User: Fold these one by one.
Assistant:
Number 1:
Amino acid sequence: MDPHIINLPRKVIVGNNVIDNMFDVCSELGVKKPLILADKNTLKISGERIKENLTSLNPQTEIVKEASLAETERIKNTVKDIDVVIGTGGGVVIDVAKLVAFEKNVCFFSVPTAPSHDGIVSETASITDKGTKISIKTRGPRAIIADVNIISNAPYRLIASGCADIISNLTAVYDWELAKKNGEYFSEYAAKLSLLAADIVMKSADTIVERKERGIRNLIEALITSGIAMSIAQSSRPASGSEHMISHALDMMNSNALHGEQCGIASIGIAYLQGQDWKKIKQTLQKIKAPVSFREMGIEKEMVVKAFLEAKSMTKRERYTILDEKPLTRDKVEQILRVTGIY
Ligand SMILES: [Zn+2]
């Protein structure tokens, strides 16, 4: 077998007010010249606190306006001598922080303020280039500092979206197993970790919806576990199958639902196609108060049908999934939407 190289975070801290440990984390990991990236909102929530904690290191701070290549370039050219990029925020800031760190060849610390998807831990940066969303492979975070206090206070929609992203691991792993039969690399361990993350979130639905600390911690740990599963696999396979391709296709048609929301709804339809227990997925999403229909997200039906039919060609993903095993027709898509009620 070829050597399989796994890069994992060095330090993961989950807890209340752990954001105030930033100086210790920097010292322990030997970094002295931090760049803090935040957006206008997260600068107030966490950025200023990190800055204060790192006063003795004289950190540079930049506000991220959008997750685009142009914005990444701007920041890269503005900052001077740095040895770590600390990204604090939701998807946009984290994606830009990953890419800036990668291109500057320094390490990246992930300090999420919302649990909206597993990108807070993964190696992939989702960036737009002149309006088109592209995925760029970077390096995963050297440290993850997940402050439960801050994350618990994120808008509930982001919390529900993170749950849905993790629950969609169920259909992603099924697709990966299909690919295994086709000779693709498959890691039993990564697949099990990914399913474990989904299982924990599903079992924590009641406490998550009430924003109880135990539930939010379980969600954060599940997002981290899912990211680590991807690091072990050295691929997004454990957490991204045909349901993610459908979500990406919808993004390309400018839908404005959240990533996790789209993946969750799509995974109900894909689970039906795969012969999995789609009702359980739907009921859990309902319990978590995540959306279960594209209609309620204001997405037009034609867009959804096109996303199912053309997910593969639109996203140009050479990824074997149930959509290859059971090629869809328009009638079949209509049936999926009708039976599962996702439209
Ligand atoms: Zn995802």
Number 2:
Amino acid sequence: MGGATEVAQPRGGREDGPGVAVTVLGVDIGGTSVKAGLVDESGRVIEQQSQPTPHSSGDFRQLLRALAARWAGRFDAAGFGCKGLIDAASTRVIRSPGPVAFLEGLSLSEMAGLNVPARAGNDAHAAMAGEMRWGAARDHRHALLFTLGSGVGGAIVADGRLLGGVSGIAGHLGHVTVDPWGACCICGNRGCLETVFSARALEAEVWRVVNAGCATKLAGGPVTCEALFEAAAGGDRAATVILDKAVYQLAAAIAGLLFAFDPEVVILGGNIARAGVLLWRPLAAGIHERTRAFLGREVPLVPQQTSDPSGIAGAAALAMAGI
Ligand SMILES: [Zn+2]
């Protein structure tokens, strides 16, 4: 499991020498859609397509074969990003609870019938691979990435390598315990970061204060993170209390991880990372306050830089050399 191995080389092999372009097929497998495309060395998605996620392994195999056939002969390697626990070298899906659970035990590369090198990883690892190659982690050997969305994903670069651990689980930063007595988490633990700072957790808090009858502009409106941040920006007391607490806990979790991994940079991606100063300012202040004395420096907190919301480029980056 894990382990390193073949990565993209120019068509025709190394003897072609420098200057021969590498093109990689990137496939992002999500719960609702499968996005795929050809990615060049600069991270540009040259061509792409998106289709609804099939509901069976037979249909899925057909889709992957069709993608491989569409771009046959035009790519040197393939990279797959998929939710769950994926074996990087064999591209086998080890565990993926949810809509693509039928992929468990199957190798994505074999399903696609590929005869080029292939690598795979979960969606956060794919995002970090993109950042390592083209984005905020490009010039760093030590970096942390958090994807703040409906859940919290994560990835760690240590000594220039994307950390997988013995079973590929390393980097699941959303499952760091921040409250030992906290709420049950999807992973089987309780009080994970994801149970206090994620769209699901924040929206659950909004439901709670509305149901409790608290005076808030959130009552009667949409229960979304956008509405929560908007209400807090407008001075809504209940919204501010929810956010203050959640951001405080996120800062505490990141502070602990800074001591564990001593990164040069912390990268934030995902929908919630676009919330603006209401998130970034108190978060940076909270992290620095907790870590400044011991670290002796402020670790930059920066947004994800690769401009590929599809996830295709990140998936392709997994298969490019040096990750
Ligand atoms: Zn958890």
Number 3:
Amino acid sequence: MDQGSFHPRPLLCFADTYGGVNVRPTVFKSNPSRPDSAEDYDGFASGLYFLFSLVSSRFGALLACEQCSVYHTTVVYNPEDRVREDLGAEALGSQAGRASTRCEESIAAIATPPGHGGIGIIRVSGPAVKRVAYWVLGEEPEPRTARVYEFLDQNKSPIDQGLAIFFNNPHSYTGEDVLELHGHGSPAALDMLMTRILELGTVRLARPGEFTERAFLNGKLDLAQAESVADLIGSRTHAAARAAKKSLEGAFSKEITSFSKNLRELRVQIEAEIDFSDEPVGVLDDDKLRAGLDEAAEALESLLCRAKRGALLGGGAKVVLAGPANAGKSSLMNALLAEERSIVHNSPGTTRDVIESEIDIDGLLLRLTDTAGLRQSNDEVETEGVRRAGNAIRGADLVLLVLDDTNDGTNYHEWLKGVPSRKSTIVILNKCDITNRPYGVIPDFFGEVTVATSATKQLGLNSLLEAIKQQLGYSIMSNEEPFMARHRHLRALESAKVNLAHAAANAKDRRGIELVAEDVRIAQQALAEILGTVSNEELLGQIFSTFCIGK
Ligand SMILES: Nc1nc2c(ncn2[C@@H]2O[C@H](COP(=O)(O)OP(=O)(O)O)[C@@H](O)[C@H]2O)c(=O)[nH]1
Ligand SMILES: [Mg+2]
């Protein structure tokens, strides 16, 4: 038998041909509730499957009829089934792929930050919530109604007084019963109340992020939304907070879902084309396939671009000022910050340590880092400073190579050697007030992005900030509100991009269509990871452990 011509694909005919019965042929599971379900035929079906593998040619029509006469439920074909099976139920955006997880344990935590404040909130979630309410409030509160209560200790004397709100499952943040006690923001009173709740014995202290983790597990949020909760809490600029809020509302998830859906449709067509390549159905010709892949690649690129901007918003960027001693690095840092942060002096070797400060430009948080001038020195402290400067350069998202235009500009390439070749770099020719070089971007400066500045006269700084934003890929797009993204998301999108590129390469040869299907499947899988529909325990642990307690 010709093994080469064998396709181990379990499809035999279109579903439509045999009505609405829709059982995946790979499963061979009968449905005992149906009289025609061929119960007890599972073994027979497996046997048939084994036999199929010996058939030396495409067996679609032949075995479809064969099967039909026995029990057609096992042979009905629907290309969507395979796509769906790979992704785990409705992986694309809906929560159905994640089994609702009701935790047996109840958890509690102080949800407000430590210290004294007007209000302190304790949150309890889980099956013991009603019992806690009964012991602490003396009754089970009306769901979703704020009421003033006395919070009672075991002797029924009040610990504190405040609002209590009960959210019955599934209509709560976690999807479980939740009780919120809004007392006074006194660490002592909150501590007493927490002790009271924990001594009931049915509740334990929540781990960081455990409330949100439960919300995720119960299908209230997808993983990208859950991450944006932490991003919103940790946001340091208005733009970052707004972007995190957008992601929490599902803006990023929607984009991923919609793109995945398109990819999925393309995949269904590719799968059908493979399965019916010998039949005159003509699902997807070469041009259509290539056009579909090109379109997907384009959409992914735009998504990646926006996600990069979102990731920048969330994490900010480390921008390191490096270069020879006395070029004006510290002066430039101070000019950009509009404050005297670094010591400026005309004697070389003044800056000996790494000095960091943050600046918000159009919502983008830059962590500006001033470093010691790169030079040989007999001074141990300065040598250590130069070593640290090297580390800072290696860890930078963007290096500003500051050169003194009065003498270093001509041998800029020597200085460039000190910067790793793949680092994003801007060359700055400082002290242009002395050389009379026009300030601003210098076009075509030996292929480097170069800006002429005067730190002392504050010239060329706006051009420099624009160049920084551009180099970091952060440019404000008109009516598009940015969404928050993380490096984890970027990695997944990059991986999808690589796989789509493979798919496009494989699509050049008709014989590679099976590989195309596999590439698209892996790309789709990478996207599903973003939403957490195919996430693993370790990843979830990593993500939720970065949350604060009580969220
Ligand atoms: N004329 C002029 N002098 C500058 C400029 N930037 C820095 N300087 C001077 O150059 C000297 C070294 O500056 P500094 O910022 O300490 O350089 P660093 O060693 O690279 O940090 C100081 O005397 C500064 O006042 C500039 O743009 N124009
Ligand atoms: Mg300095």
